[in-house]
Input
Amino acid sequence: QVQLVESGGGLVQAGGSLRLSCAASGSIFSINTMGWYRQAPGKQRELVAAITSDGNTNYADSVKGRFTIGRDAANNTVWLQMNSLKPEDTAVYYCNANLKRLRFLRWNDYWGQGTQVTVSS
Output
């Protein structure tokens, strides 16, 4: 009933760029915050960037100045422009959305399937 579909991952050389996209669909009343998390092998999942429906953003210190997060006009799609990529950025990137479903009272977090980003040196 609610799906987050990601695209844009791949293999890139250090210093290159990638653009991730995530679209939310289904029985959704409203979407608050959308964001991107990443998880490298053997490490915990960490927040990369997030954006509210009002346009407020939050970035991990490690990506500030290199990554930019944004949403489309309908606020159901979030993208992440990743520039000056480093090998340390290699991870599976997961889309996240905090939303309220139709006929439901509570706001909940939903997750995409994950997309691999690999940065070679």
